[in-house]
Amino acid sequence: EIVLTQSPGTLSLSPGERATLSCRASQTVSNNYLTWYQQKPGQAPRLLIYGASSRATGIPDRFSGSGSGTDFTLTISRLEPEDFAVYYCLQHGSSPRTFGQGTKVEIK
Amino acid sequence: EVQLVESGGGLVQPGGSLRLSCAASGFTFSNYWMHWVRQVPGKGLVWVSRINNDGSSIIYADSVRGRFTISRDNAKNTLYLQMNSLRVDDTGVYYCASHPYFDFWGQGTLVTVSS
Q1: What is the mean pLDDT of each run of 10 residues along chain A (108 residues)?
Q2: pLDDT tens, residue by residue, B45-100
């Protein structure tokens, strides 16, 4: 199965700063079927990005995804207070679907 | 408005069984493939199982194959997960989610396997 490794584990930033989150796959993610989710405490994950770079409906344009093959990035251009959360990547190009372990974006 | 509402979780002893349900509304459930995903509290997410729109194609994670059964009743707009031979490491919040991108999630139902 494809192992997704997210880095860093925790990102300490201030509102207004740029956040860059990495998701690295142990094998090529087929068709760049890589998605990103945001999860806040007590809530279900929320879809942010699909197909590595397409924003889901209603997601602000400060969120962007990039990458291909085995290296993917989620960028939040300017952090808003509501963006402090845990972010997960998922690959669904190969079975079984696998998640990364998550990156926590916390207020510095 | 799309809604997915899970139920059926609870405390069960190792070796026991539970049946989870996921009631769907606000979209044409019979057109959608569906998934179950588990999250250990405070930890990450693990995909559990997927079923296609008419129930004819099903896959499972290795960790649950032979113990869990996913099914659906399109007339009732409901997804199920029958969980047998439960183990301590099956503990977690179980979410149902829509295919292909997990666009929509329920609020989750907590399953605790403990003696």
Answers
A1: 97 97 98 97 96 97 98 98 98 96 97
A2: 999 999 999 999 999 999 999 999 999 999 999 999 999 999 999 999 999 999 99
Identify which of B48, B51, B100 has the alpha carbon closest to the alpha carbon of residue A31.
B100
Closest residue in A to B43 (Cα–Cα) = A101
Of A50, A88, A96, the CB nearest to B101: A50
Give the tens place of pLDDT for each residue, A46-57.
999 999 999 999
What span, in angstroms and rounded, lies between the C-alpha atoms of B75 and B30? 8
Alpha-carbon span B70 to B83, nearest angstrom = 9
User: Å from B64 to nearest chain A CA?
Assistant: 12
B108–chain A Cβ distance below 8 A for any pair: yes
pLDDT, position B97: 97
Q: Which residues of B touch A35 (CB under 8 A)?
A: 101-102
Q: Cβ of B46 and A100 within 8 Å? A: no
d(CA B59, CA B45): 17
